[in-house]
Fold these 2 entries.
Entry 1:
Amino acid sequence: MNLFTKQTATLALAAGMGFAAVSSAWSAESLQDVMKRRGLSQQDLLAASKTYVPTGKRDEFVAFSSGGQSGQVIVYGIPSMRILKYIGVFTPEPWQGYGFDEESKEVLKGGRIDGKDITWGDTHHPALSETNGKYDGQFLFINDKANPRLAVIDLRDFETKQIVVNPIFKSEHGGAFVTPNTDYVIEASQYATPFANKKFVPLERFNEEYRGGVTYWKFDRKEGKIDVKKSFTLELPPYSQDLSDAGKLASDGWSFTNSFCTERYVGGIEKGRPPYEAGCSAKDTDYMHVINWKKAAELVAAGKAKKVNGMDVIPMDVSIKEGILFLIPEPKSPHGVDVTPDGKFITVAGKLDTHVSVYSFEKIMAAIKAGKFEGKDPYGIPVISMQDTLHKQVQLGLGPLHTQYDSKKCVAYTSLYVDSQVAKWDYCEGKVLDKISIHYNIGHLMTMEGDTVDPKGHYLVALNKLAIDRFNPVGPLHPQNHQLIDISNDKMQLLYDMPIPLGEPHYVVAIDAKMLKPGIRYKVGTNSRTDKPSAGAVRAGEEHTDKKAGKVEVFGTLIRSHITPETIEATVGDEITIHLTNLERAEDETHGFTVSTYNVHASAEPGKTVTVKFKADKEGVYPYYCTEFCSALHLEMQGYLLVKPKGYKEVKVAAAKADYNKADYDKQVKKIADTQAVIDSVVGFITSHNYKDFPDVVALVEDATDQLGRMKEAKAKHEESAKKQDWQNATLWAEQVWQYQVKAADIGLRAKTYLEEHGAKKVGK
Ligand code: K7E
Ligand code: CUA
């Protein structure tokens, strides 16, 4: 069946024949039948009805999950838990051309350390940008714990735009957390090291020369970039700082960072010393760091910081003298530190304690104001007593880790790692409300917008470290398990298990889907990684190739279904640069591009300009092609890179003799007329309906008109060739006219189906 008859058949079906007859051949299966056949309970059905999102419908929330060791971000919908996208961040991601085209290589270059590429990342904590403490849907940040880096993702196109390296840390964990207006992105170190780069300091000098810290990365919202020059770090003792959180509302201007090894233990099991795990949990308490970041920023502006490896660092003695740094004891080896939505309380969960401790910001401020301290730490930092600042301690269970908040007042949820449970509790009254078992060993948990000033409630996701028996076995390395829990009622209900097969997603954030408004296309000729016009962009008809000594630079275009140019000629040893602009305006019309065996790949979404660059270091013939199935003639979207030996002399090859005659041409002309009739009938259907009420259809119609518009030039050419009785070219140009028709018909049929499925109405003539 050739394409044309396929189209016709589709048209006939779409016109309403056939479907009813087919479905009546099957006996209907009732809900009860299905329940019996699949062994489902009423409870299962209830859970299913809370997560199932019917085809064509969308999720209420969009979640951005850390991709753990994959160095990526995973985007999925809630409540369906359908994966929507992987975003390449610290790691090359071939589909998006990330790390395989020049534009994205520039972004990854920002993540080089000591001049070397680091092609993996250990992502932990994604953070959405905020305005007045609420998610604004503009940017996403995520950290790399292993290599102290932070990335900025723009939510207009879900692409990574920037990676910055912390010049004084060697690892970091307490990030990314944003201040309420995203002035700063907080990132705390984890394992203490000397700040000086590439300097050996013996472990015996740990207390004196190893340091922790918190970096406040300045975010320039207008540029959508971290402003490294305006960022600064607070020097901290080598206490193995862990998570952080920014104060909000009542506590705006302050931030909180805890620590898990104030023992400053340096291990040495191989020398007969007890291991880290014993040495780091010997004392009953560690310290929460309380930092006035607003005042810290003023101190930096006033020149009170000193430069270390190019970064402004506020030394500890300055922080102490200026009164911007305090410590409060917190139960043994804590993990999460989470500020309540009103900013009045800070919940700390001690992994080795069965309690969560709720600190009162008001009490902390009162103690600081009164100068009431229980002492100083070995570095002279004032220590506020736990008793003076505690609001409540609540016994929840074994291994409490992280806390998130509900839309209901005073309601919090804390993960219990050892118990494999989520505890729902009241932080105002200090009592447990409900518990639910998860599967298994929960790390973080997340409620909808649950770390903002305005949590949305509804759902909770438990991020479980172990899946054990939940899924079909796939070998010793199991997927992780994100479990969806309904929290809209008094009792929590477990709804769904979602396997995450791409690393350990430590944390995830979810935003009301309505807040996200990503684009559909770029302005034609955009370098998406810089958001500026690409120097390699050209418009249709301006395609050209520049040749200079040792260099070939192609300025080409992509559109259904051809790559311009269709041949690239080079001499072995040439440096080849290929810029390609996707001229499409249609939604979801992405073209990909690769050249055989040269390890380049690019994804060109509508309007984007991409660049691949490589040295043609091998003589030979290398096909290049579009890697996205973009159109019926996608396979024909191809070309050849011809790499000739040095000094190659062109040989005359006899011109191919004509393959087509007048009869072939006439056949083509008839085919064009028949197809036009099909197009006219589709157009008739669309225009006789209220299609203008459907923006998606209006866009399709524009695209189809665009394809038909391109036809004119090819039509003129086949008619001219026919006049000269050049049947070869006349036949082929006529074929090209038909190609445009097919594309237009394809789009038209999509529009027609859409109208039928969305109940479009007939309009009067
Ligand atoms: Cu895995 Cu926040 Cu890095 Cu806890 S972290 S579990
Ligand atoms: Cu363009 Cu396939």
Entry 2:
Amino acid sequence: MKKRLVILGSTGSIGTQTLDIVSAFPDRFEIVALSCGSNIELLKKQISEFSPKYVCVRHDADRLTLVDQYPDITFCSGAEGLIELAQVPNIDILVVAIFGTASLLPTITAIKNGTAIGLACKEILVTAGDLIMPMAKQYGAAILPMDSEHAALKQCLAGIDEDMKQVDRLILTASGGPFWERDGSTFSNIQVEDALKHPNWDMGAKITIDSATMMNKGLEVIEAHHLYQTPYDQIDVVIHPKSIVHSLVEFTDGTMLAQMGMPDMRFPIQYALTYPEKWTNPWPKADLTTLGALTFAKPDYEKFPLLRMAFDAGKQGGNAPAIMNAANEAAVHLFLTKQIGFTDIFRLVEEALSDFTHNSSPSLEELVAIDQSVKDKLGYTHA
Ligand code: MG
């Protein structure tokens, strides 16, 4: 039996790497549906290689052109189109590889159908983890993280009792991004081009900026809290510039398990797609004898205040992580389009957290509304 996949965001970084894995195991996966934004040329190549039955594009004008060219495919468009793809019958895994809260409602739709989620979108659990994790349990939908740190933690926790009583700490590693060693007093001079150069990982623009500000690690801390039901005072971050150790678990007996490998997103994506199995693949492996020293250091919360803000917002709970996430999404967009400077991202997130009213147990509708209000205030409309 082939695993039937739907990929939201098939032309992005995670989407294309997911399709690399599908190509490596053509007898074991079937692509049922794809969605993309506006990279129609790449979408056409993917259609001819993977023959999806359903395709969603962001703009309806693109749908109208494609309908004539591919009469055998069912097309849809926009935000409602994503929800339609999430409801395609008999899907094994919905791969959510669109950044931002745009995929929140399609993800919830799939969970309510009992479909497993391959989760590459951090903003979903950060915004609504308190609602989504119990919902996934209720409907029997697995949440399979497609991120190196959370996939690492999942492997280190394999065989550990669900009550987590044997676990002392989850330790997420962080590369530190391109500015880990840069003098913090020069951060206001950082240009978009500098921030888009990540030393180890090949990722989309939004997450690459998040890595440069270290908000990425803050979002991952909140995700780890939800995925593994771990209090924030039992989650730590260590700087590990080589990105070979992907995360660790420290147990009550003082020992640790680490998960290691090359910094290549195809490993955690494959683990999510094949879980709980491990399949032989052709990707380059790590050679310990050529890696040199693996180093670990404390994070600098002064230089990277968003990491501290993420811990604080996580501990505050309720709608605070949603406010922080929405302000960050908007601020990163403003930075990428050169409307604000690098350190303005820190300022706008901090201001949003103090400007918007705290709600300790928001409903889904309230979370969606606050996400929109914060983005509106910062003048961000997702293209
Ligand atoms: Mg990561």
